[in-house]
Design goal:
about 500 residues, alpha+beta, 6-stranded antiparallel β-sheet, 5-stranded antiparallel β-sheet, 13 helices, 20 strands, elongated
Length: about 500
């Protein structure tokens, strides 16, 4: 490259640099090759050469080109570079160009996702602390700062939180962790849920409330060959709301006829005076059944003989018809009395809505005869021998939880009313059991669960300690009914003949 071309190039570079003109490589090359720019610069160079030739001595003419170069440039070095880069192609960068300054790379902080489980007051807690980094590197947990008094500590060996939580609420933990020998820390939320049992209050109903009823009731019948126990207690939902128990029960043993009567009823939770409805139904039905099963009732004697013999199909059918009519009459009397009470206080009869489950039984040697009537939810069953159960009816379950059928005229006039009556005679029956849904829902959960002998066996195992000391079975059973089951806080009533 001649000196004039070199000078043109330097002038263009200086102009771009001094005026901070941003250009890309292709444009710089185009400027070098622009003939119009070259002509103007050549004209200026020629003028400069002419003027300087008149003023300077021969010694001053040594390398005059240096007078036009910026002080910081190394002309010799650039001449050499330009000679080597004389064959530049479009898009190539001249090798003499100053390289861009190299910046120190920035190290970004890894993003950590820390997870742990929720805890619950009074329940053993063991939750692994899990850390996931967006860099996919493996982080190590160094320590965890935990507020005092929570009952929880950090197990460094297993990277987990352990302990028995003592306080409920939302608590911030600080997790110290490291990766590649660099330490970091992050906050993570620990949620400790309260013990559900601590949320329930125990409130009394207003003192002037009509139809008062004891919160807990129980009864025990111990005879030579008869043991019957019943217990009923107010559910946590009623305790919390400060309302009365809606359930009721009745048990009876006739020393003359040897008949047993077992009844449970569950007043509808949505009905204002259902607690009285269940009591009216119980009292009405029990009174009628006692009168019809007494030894003085001559109309019953033929059926009693058939029950003892139990070998004539026609006679057995007659027994079934007798009990179907017996329970229909009892239910009709109960409905009538519910109507009368509703009229008496000027309330809709639905305010007294209730279910009704009734069973009469008779022990004959090693066999048990039972006839049952089932209106609503809950359960009736004859259990025995071990691992075998007979469900004495069909529960009335609705489309949603808590929906069922109640004792009323429409139920009595149903063409399939007789399907609500079950009779049978079996050997080796160890327990005859009636319960409201406050017991059956947590124990069996579904209608299919009622058919599971294993669930019945588990129930028998649970209540057996209560029955082990018969003289105190009523109190023990009432205490057992206070078991906690999440989501099941209804009144509970259980009757057992064993």
């Amino acid at each position: 490259m001649d000196k004039k071309a070199l000078l043109r190039k330097l002038i263009i570079d200086d102009t771009l640099t001094q005026h901070r003109i941003p250009v890309h490589e292709e444009l710089v090359i185009a400027l070098y090759e622009d003939m119009e720019i070259a002509q103007h610069i050549d004209f200026i160079i020629d003028k400069i050469n002419a003027k300087t030739a008149e003023k300077i001595t021969p010694q001053d003419k040594i390398q005059p080109i240096l007078l036009l170069l910026p002080p910081a440039r190394n002309l010799a070095g650039e001449e050499t570079s330009l000679a080597e880069d004389s064959s530049l192609k479009p898009g190539q960068i001249p090798t003499h160009s100053s390289p861009m300054p190299t910046e120190k790379p920035i190290i970004h902080r890894p993003t950590a996702k820390i997870t742990l489980s929720n805890a619950k007051v009074g329940t053993a807690f063991n939750s692994t602390l899990s850390i996931e980094l967006n860099t996919l590197e493996i982080a190590e947990i160094d320590a965890v700062d935990i507020p005092e008094g929570l009952g929880i500590t950090f197990d460094h060996e297993n990277d987990c939180l352990v302990g028995m939580p003592t306080n409920s609420g939302n608590f911030t933990l600080i997790v110290h962790w490291s990766v590649n020998a660099v330490c970091y820390h992050d906050e993570v939320l620990l949620i400790i849920n309260p013990d559900p049992r601590s949320l329930w209050q125990i409130n009394e109903p207003p003192a002037d409330s009509p139809y008062p009823k004891a919160h807990i009731d129980s009864k025990l019948i111990l005879e030579e060959d008869t043991r019957i126990v019943a217990a009923s207690r107010r559910g946590r939902s009623h305790e919390h709301a400060g309302t009365f128990r809606d359930d009721d029960f009745y048990i009876h043993h006739d020393n003359h006829s040897q008949w047993n009567i077992l009844i449970v009823a569950d007043g509808a939770g949505s009905a204002r005076y259902s607690r009285e409805g269940s009591r009216i139904a119980i009292n009405t039905v029990s009174h009628y059944l006692k009168s019809q099963l007494s030894v003085e009732n001559d109309a019953f004697k033929p059926h009693l003989e058939a029950i003892h013999q139990w070998n004539d199909a026609n006679a057995i059918n007659q027994v079934g018809s007798f009990f179907a009519q017996l329970f229909r009459n009892a239910a009709q009397l109960a409905v009538n009395n519910l109507k009368n009470e509703a009229i008496h206080i000027n309330e809709p009869v639905k305010s007294f809505s209730t279910t009704l489950l009734a069973t009469v039984s008779l022990r004959i040697n090693d066999e048990l005869f039972a006839a049952s009537f089932w209106m609503g939810d809950g359960a009736i069953a004859a259990y025995g021998p071990a691992g075998k159960v007979r469900i004495l009816g069909i529960p009335d379950s609705g489309e949603y939880a808590g929906q069922t059928r109640f004792l009323d005229d429409s139920a009595l006039n149903d063409a399939e009313f007789n399907r609500r009556i079950i009779i049978g005679k079996w050997k080796e029956i160890s327990h005859l059991i009636l319960m409201t849904d406050g017991v059956s829902d947590p124990v069996f959960e579904t209608d299919n669960g009622l058919q599971d002998p294993n669930k019945w066996a588990a129930l028998i195992d649970e209540i057996s300690p209560c029955l082990a000391s018969p003289e105190n079975a009523d109190n023990a059973l009432a205490e057992w009914l206070n078991f906690f089951s999440a989501g099941n806080h209804d009144d509970r009533t259980l009757v057992v003949a064993w």
